[in-house]
Amino acid sequence: MTAKITRSELQSVLGSAQAPVLIEALPARYYVDAHLPGAINIPHDAIDENIKQILPDLSAPIVVYCASGPCKNSGIAQTALTKLGYQDVRDYHDGKQDWLDAGLPLQGQGVLENTA
Hints:
The chain has 116 residues and is an alpha/beta fold. The chain has helices spanning 7-13, 28-33, 51-54, 73-83, 95-101, 109-115; strands at residues 21-24, 40-41, 62-65, 89-92. The protein has a four-stranded parallel beta sheet, with helices on one face. Strand 1, helix 2 (28-33) and strand 2 (40-41) form a beta-alpha-beta unit. The termini are far apart. The mean pLDDT is 92. It comes from Thalassospira lucentensis.
């Protein structure tokens, strides 16, 4: 079963003691352009055993996301992480577009260029 998280649920846990590791599952160029605040970039096709060096705690909460609902990268990343033994991986399925549509801030070079 795929565990999902909504924007409002994600907002409520970000910045809290239970804040998840937030992973953008898109290629680096999209992450550099704009990403959710505090997110790290691990493209869906780069998730392998080496991720355990970055995220050694298999029980840590993780939220993966990609561009929008039709994008499959976050689901692929969630499946890969679960197969590697991560126990609390949720998919923010509506992704970056939902965050932006809600008027919430993004970070990245593209965001800085648009505000200049």
